[in-house]
What does this fold into?
Amino acid sequence: MNAIVVIIPTYNERDNLPLITARVRAAVPGADLLVVDDDSPDGTGLLADELAAADDHVHVLHRTAKNGLGAAYLAGFRWAIEHGYDIMVEMDADGSHQPEQLPRLLEALEEADLVIGARWVPGGEVENWPKRREILSRSANTYARLMLGMPLHDATGGYRAFRRETLEKLDLEDVDSRGYCFQVDLALRAHRAGLRVAEVPITFVDRVHGSSKMNSSVIAESMLRVTAWGIRSRFGR
It folds into this structure.
């Protein structure tokens, strides 16, 4: 059986971490978890250590600063590869990604190199999201699809399953995307490498505890980078 690790970046997610950990362990009992904590001032890292001490399937990677989602996942990927995992899963700590739907991503990965849990495909749903967030997400994905020529409906989606070999082919040392455009970056690299990228419908549920990490600087970074990638692909620069 392939070794699976679910990578969960955290920053001030103390109220969410115990529940998401328990749900992952129940949904895929054979999987491990890696909590990548960016020195959360609310004590998330200390709580993660307590969860790890009580369960051999839970591991913690402490980072010394909040350097963005992309940097956290890259650190998690490196840790997972060094520790011999075959499948790496991205999952939010806030419960917006349903661990109970993880088996469908893993099943789809049997015929793909990267699987994205997609909100904007038939069967995909969002719950409790403000209309403006839905419009922003749909618009961002449409823009990315048109600018980059990727046949994906949810390139910004952060619920993903990767094969180890996929990550090893994506030149991760060259990735410097920090915010949510990190997801577009990796999807684009996989698409341009000719890898098999599949989308499966998921139900995305807005967080109950804590606050979203989305802000104007994250949106600006995504727009600028996607635009630059699109221009370079068209004009060869």
The longest helix spans residues 216-235. The chain has one domain: 4-235.
